[in-house]
Amino acid sequence: MNRRDFVRLGCAAVAQAHASRLLAAQMPMPAQQAAEGAKADFTLQIEPVVLELAPSRAISTIGYNGGSPGPLLRMREGVPATVEVVNNTDVPELVHWHGLFVPSEIDGAEEEGTPMVPPHGRHRYQFTPRPAGTRWYHTHTMAMADLHRGTYTGQYGFLYVEPKDNPGRYDQELFLALRDWEPFFADEVEDPDEILDAGPQPEKPANPDMRPNGLEVGSRISSINDKMLGGGDPIQVKQGQRVLMHLLNASAIENRRIAFSGHRFQVLALDGNPVPTPQSVEVLLIGPGERVDAIVEMNKPGVWTLGATNDEDRNAGMGVVIAYENQKGQPQWIAPAKTGWDYTIFGKTVTRPAPDHTFEMLIEKNPRAIGKFNQWVINGKEYPHEQEFVLQQGARYRILFRNRSDDAHPVHIHRHLFELVDINGKPTGGIMKDTVVVPLYGHVSVDLVADQPGLTLFHCHIQQHMDYGFKALFRYS
Predict the structure, then answer these.
(1) What is the value of pTM for the model shown?
(2) What is the DSSP pairing of strand 432-433 with strand 418-423?
(3) β pairing state of 273-281 and 303-308
(4) What is the H or E stretch that residue 196 is in?
(5) Fewer CB atoms inside 10 Å of the end CB: C or N, the chain?
(6) How far apart (Å, rounded) are the C-alpha atoms in residues 188 and 176?
(7) How does pLDDT run across 49-84, given as a tens digit for each residue?
(8) What pLDDT does residue 18 have?
(9) Element (H, E) at 311
(10) For residue 385, which phi and psi values (nearest 5 degrees)?
């Protein structure tokens, strides 16, 4: 079955009865049928929701259209779309269209000049969706010390831009988002995944800062979509199927390593963009904001767990059960080999033009510089970096991210794609992304072509880091 046939059948394979509760929130929202110009194609209602993560565990948060994740917004590349956002809360909100090429004034970032959606008000977004691929939408409000605001809430959902022509072959399609819930403050929040993927650490200072760390954010429970591991019905598959998985880290807090017991991921795209060299891997590292599209061959009958490789995270709910047809029993977990994540295996050797300009971004942490919290600076300064990063339209920029901190940072540039050039000294090419994890004490080089005029926000996609200084504005001259 090709992709076009699958879409015509209305994604029936995804909405199997046995997985209905897990997948209900991600089913496509149909365009509203109304007189021309009277109604939007899609409507998002921002409102309080109660999520039953497990039979004995429910949480209250803010979501879209009565749930979290919000509805899957499925659009066609190049076909104009209108989204009506209705804010049924008492505070102003924003919706950011992560990974889309849209004007600054509708990108969903206050720093770029996008107007807020007022409390109990509404705002209409009109844009032509591009580029094709797996994108997503989420709130972009500041949270600071309020763990009930911003991306700590359940305000997120998948946005998929159907390509004009992509006959990809698969039998079933799944949209799976990784989430953390019930955040809390602590002075030390360990992330074993960051240590495993640290690499050679070329940016580690000879004399690291030994001052006591400020408060950071951890979480008590996790889920994939709206269910903790074991909290919902298994996803049902059949032997021999090719399942296309769209995986998103929608967390506000941590990078995550994910594996699927006894199976491998054939990675086709990163951040929705096809990779030059698809590769089969056992483990995925996905930073907040990143997406991975992968085909999984269902060739090992049984009842299995797809989830976090870290036992503590998986036991806290970060996983989902996948069961083959006619297979029963307790889900099995097979720990994968402890290997690091390497973006470069998906790239190729390329000859690219020399950059017209180079920006260097030195990322540092000042422990407890803002009361009990850490301060994050780029080149020694906090946001907004007035006139420091000015782009000339059409020029190519080499951006070097030098991470002098003991955290791995998923850095995101709005409204643009960039090409990975170098990861800790290892060259690569052809991998286009909008978010990349810069390893702790590591460096990453990317090339960006300034082809989307307007204010452009750059930031770490860990909410607390962004709130406390880790962001900058790119301006076009």
Answers:
(1) 0.91
(2) antiparallel
(3) unpaired
(4) helix 192-196
(5) C
(6) 29
(7) 999 999 999 999 999 999 999 999 999 999 999 999
(8) 36
(9) helix 311-315
(10) 60, 55
